[in-house]
């Protein structure tokens, strides 16, 4: 019979919280991640919970948000004694605390991502038991992606498949969000989303309509950190729209927020030029690590990342449940 309790952490338990479920070699990295999230406003002390049994901390969970949102959206750092038979009870109690918190702040859904293989900073080992817990709690997979990374600390050379991408990027003309305004940018988002291989965007477009989906997606990306001159539309020398690039920054790394080519310009290699240009924007801004996701069905985009020198480091399942 289980005899644990679930409670918010205390200020003085911050370091202990970082160590729950972590291998010794990962504790420092987890603590840095927590400090980054706390400093950025993506996490708060009172959004973190532990499971305690006989005076020992045996489980943890933390609510997470985008800094500009201000209320929890997802949960991270879920760790339990996964080898125990009662892991479902412990995990359910922790997740229920987060769901109750989200509901109390007006949220309508809670998300969670599961990366396999396990990677920093969450190190989500025991994926089968994690999946079983999420299914038990009614979470459903909303999207599956492959994740790619450019790390300047270990990679050398230009982020491109040879000189062609850089040359093509240099031939294009760019107009920033500040130049063209939001309406023009939303129209471009709508156009590059047409015929997308991304299941989530495709389904949202069908459900909401092309323009409303583009507006919603644009607004969602605005919650990320970015500079207006990072978001750019690309044109041919003759003034024809080619596509767009929308780099962003998270508290832990930079990311290619969105990239796309309009239907009539596809198949001409422009995606490589746009990816080169977007990567250079982030590197020139001081980014060292760039991580980005693409839908598992979006093979052309995955090939573009690999050709540019990014490496595939994990696959991600995005889960969601109504609160």
From TrEMBL:
PROSITE patterns assigned to the protein according to its UniProt record, in alphabetical order: GNAT
SUPFAM superfamilies membership: Acyl-CoA N-acyltransferases (Nat) (SSF55729)
Q: Does the keyword Lyase apply?
A: no
Out of the domains of life, which is the source?
Bacteria
Offer an example of a GO molecular function term for this protein. acyltransferase activity, transferring groups other than amino-acyl groups
Q: Which Pfam families match?
A: Acetyltransf_1
Residue stretches making up the N-acetyltransferase domain:
187-323
Against InterPro entries, the record matches this protein to: Acyl_CoA_acyltransferase, GNAT_dom
The UniProt keywords, alphabetically, are:
Transferase
Task: Respond yes or no to whether keyword Cytoplasm is given for this record.
Answer: no
Q: Which protein is depicted?
A: GNAT family N-acetyltransferase
Q: What is the lineage of its organism?
A: Bacteria, Bacillati, Bacillota, Bacilli, Bacillales
